[in-house]
Fold this sequence. Notes:
9 helices, Rossmann fold, globular, 32% helix
Amino acid sequence: xxxxxxxxxxxxxxxxxxxxxxxxxxxxxxxxxxxxxxxxxxxxxxxxxxxxxxxxxxxxxxxxxxxxxxxxxxxxxxxxxxxxxxxxxxxxxxxxxxxxxxxxxxxxxxxxxxxxxxxxxxxxxxxxxxxxxxxxxxxxxxxxxxxxxxxxxxxxxxxxxxxxxxxxxxxxxxxxxxxxxxxxxxxxxxxxxxxxxxxxxxxxxxxxxxxxxxxxxxxxxxxxxxxxxxxxxxxxxxxxxxxxxxxxxxxxxxxxxxxxxxxxxxxx
Length: 268
């Protein structure tokens, strides 16, 4: 029997793409295209609920899906760490439930964030610039928020140097890191994570040129959901990239001082 899928936010950019992917998969049946005008019970027969709706509507949509025993894939922005904690607490009491939250379905984006986590302990000056099309309603983007939170966690409590952060033009502080949002015609999605050090700047940039960039990540998340348990946050968890960083170097090793202590050639 095929897995039945309902998509909330089905008429949006991402929702339309997800519906096309589900329609093309012989193992999946698209049973409901849910919009803001749909009745709350629409899609109740589905095994999986994909939510790519609106940040304000998403929590209620997800809660109803869990009440019905559906497995949930969330691609909607706005799922901050505090909102995720509430969801995580609920899932602890529902051992068979599963939710995968993916701020960005692009493989390049998740790899860029992983590289930023690697670089984070080595630089004290860190800022994020994200740009999206004018129709994106929230800012900062969910991807930028997630990147900032992961970069801050990789620093193991060491604060970021963010001078004059109280000035509005310095961006919004997320986990202590300034995040700057642009909304421009001609842009699909772009994120830069900039690291400043003595005499150098490292920039990790990811550009999305079309929604085709999301196909592989959407397929991977849908395939992972039937066997998932509890809460998985990020495409890195789906792809196993979290295991790559599961055994980070000690704080002494992951520092600028340690990087040069035993290698005279690195001082050049």
